[in-house]
Amino acid sequence: MSATITNLFHRASKCPFACFLKFLVSGSFIYALHIALSHQGDMSPYPYILLVALVGVIAILALVFHLNCKFRKAHKT
User: What's the predicted TM-score (pTM) here?
Assistant: First the structure.
């Protein structure tokens, strides 16, 4: 378990914004899933669609920044 945490901190030190976006997309996905399961009748479909779209945008940004860090790392070697 400690090797996993060490690897996570190493990744976070190399690309902190990409790591932050990955955690943000995980948390927002869990939140969107919670709303979908628990508040089905309470919420209008329009705000929920906006929430799901926001999760998608955050996921795309996380992917772009992650790939940017990988390309930058490959270019340095």
Answer: 0.66
What are the tens digits of pLDDT across the range 46-61? 888 888 888 888 888 8
Tokens of residue 8, six digits: 């996570």
CB-based contacts of 18: which residues, under 8 Å, 6+ apart?
62, 65, 66, 68, 69
Neighbours of 35 (CB within 10 A): 16
Is residue 19 within 8 A of residue 63, CB to CB? The reply is: no
- Is 43's pLDDT higher than 70? yes
- Identify the sign of the CA torsion 33, 23, 75, 57: positive
pLDDT at 54: 87
For 69-75, the CB contacts below 8 A with 24+ separation are: 69/14, 69/15, 69/18, 73/14
